[in-house]
Amino acid sequence: MPSLLRVWRLEAGLQMERGKALSQKEVAHKTGVSERWYRTLESGADVSLPPNVLDRLAETLRLGPDERMAIYAHALSGSTLTRPYSVESSSESADLEELEELVEWPQDVPAYLIDHTWTIIRHNAHMARWFPWVTEPSANLLRWVLTAPEAREQLLGWHDHVEHYLGQLRFALVNWPADPVLNDLLEHVLAIPECERIWQERPRVVAYRQGHQFHLRVPSASAEEVTVRSQVLLPASHPGWRFVILMLRQGGSR
Fold it and tell me: Is the CB of residue 140 less than 8 Å from the CB of residue 151?
């Protein structure tokens, strides 16, 4: 979060045509807090973050929806709203089984369920047909997209997508900064020079890519390019999980 706050101060200053970052003093004044309080926040130390202060800080830094979600997630870290769901009781196990069965419902388009680390929990047959790697143990969507050579061939315009996927990884790390799977994923991703450069130069935060349209090359499904739009559903009982359906757009091939 400290590095993001510094970047957001810079971006706010540039938006205001200052040519430089807003100072910590100005951010503190506009937010209605002491400069010492803001310096402490930006240093990464624990400070009280009441909702009204977060609202004013977001306004001061001119944060968009995803950035606001990130800073609120940081403020709520450790709460049940951001902690991975733990399946313990028999009723919760049944809930999980029904959620996994839902993935099998779409018969003619790819569908999958991932947890907060982007690890594939369940996928339907169509997803496996398009992307055989999902059948591998501990298959991880972000790891495949950002590090697998075949991802660059299947995901058309790969370079244009990298910043968005890195932004989603950054959002996940805001929510679960100590998660070993996410930190191992970050280490592997940053070993890719292009990813490391974009991570440092364009530290975006992206919560979800609901309704994102993109083009794929799927030899196992079609000799032509396939156009899909992602529909992302968030299970209320499992914070951080996502149920995703890749809906074929007009002109797409089945």
Answer: no
